[in-house]
Design a protein that fits this description.
2 domains; 20% strand; Nucleotidyltransferase, domain 5; 12 helices; 304 residues
């Protein structure tokens, strides 16, 4: 049995983890390897450096690698997959290669067999799934302009909306006003409008406000609670759509929660559980104790 490598290729960093004979051989971190975020030349350079660092640190060589699985956003695109296949086949020429979308390793990490669903609510949102016949389906992930329901961006944007609705008198007072002003060091509502539009703060900056919504809701703020409930409902709709498209039986309706909002917010997970009870009989959520690199290694074990 040769070396198995799992690579979690992110938009800001990449994690490589390798096993041999069931034992951890090494772990290396490097630059981003996401073709949706970077040009192909930079991704190639980062992967070359990452894998080269692993061989240097472990004292191993490319001919010892028999399987490599890379999970990265955009891998569902044939052109992106072809580019990554070419790069990796040069770096580990004798290895079996598998390149998959970044959600699939998370599913394996959570379920062990890759059957069920994975729901991600980070800056954006998406639900992906796989049934026992190997069919895959997804819902959401269409970006913040036409999608990303229940995401950090959606929660943060709705918090800003609530602050302005409260200022107008359309809803009552909300603690989100003071919390957001304190976080952003703003003095009034005009400064908030300036922060949103004139300072060109975008998706990431707005998504970073989502933790304030969670805290305010936990403290009993009605506006924040309504935002969290709406977000949970939207996430449940994604899960229900994937389960329907895959025709998942109740015993396979397990949903792995990933992304900062779901991982860190007990309230959001609780609200999601309530929504699934009414929308998807048998639907249940879990938090994985393993990461995407572990999921890639599990997938490597199942390769023929």
């Amino acid at each position: 049995m040769g070396i198995r490598i799992g690579i979690d290729g992110g938009g800001t960093k990449t994690l490589l983890r390798a096993m041999e004979n069931g034992q951890l051989l090494g772990e290396v971190r490097g630059g981003a390897s996401n073709l949706t975020a970077l040009p192909a030349e930079q991704v190639q350079d980062n992967l070359t450096r990452l894998i080269g660092d692993f061989f240097s640190q472990s004292g191993t060589s490319p001919d010892q690698v028999d399987r490599l699985v890379l999970g990265t956003a955009g891998a569902s695109s044939p052109s992106a997959r072809a580019i990554l296949q070419e790069v990796l086949s040069t770096l580990v020429p004798g290895a079996q290669l598998l390149i998959v979308d970044d959600a699939i390793p998370l599913l394996y990490a959570g379920t062990g067999d890759g059957v069920g669903m994975v729901l991600i609510s980070g800056t954006g949102s998406i639900c992906s799934g796989r049934n026992r016949k190997g069919k895959q389906a997804r819902a959401g992930g269409w970006g913040h302009l036409i999608g990303d329901e229940g995401s950090g961006y959606a929660l943060g944007r709705d918090c800003l909306t609530a602050v302005m609705e409260s200022f107008d008198g359309r809803i009552g007072p909300t603690v989100l006003t003071d919390m957001i002003f304190d976080r952003l060091h703003l003095s009034d509502h005009k400064a908030l409008i300036d922060w949103v539009y004139r300072q060109r703060n975008g998706k990431a900056e707005i998504a970073a406000l989502s933790d304030l919504c969670d805290k305010a809701a936990e403290d009993g703020d009605q506006a924040a609670r309504a935002i969290m409930e709406r977000g949970a409902g939207e996430l449940a709709r994604l899960v229900a759509a994937v389960a329907k498209n895959l025709d998942l039986p109740p015993e396979d309706r397990c949903c792995v929660c990933a992304g900062g909002n779901l991982v860190h917010s007990q309230l959001l997970r609780g609200l999601l559980t309530q929504e699934l009870e009414s929308r998807l009989p048998g639907g249940r959520i879990l938090l994985s104790q393993r990461d995407a690199a572990d999921g890639c290694l599990l997938m490597a074990e199942t390769m023929a």
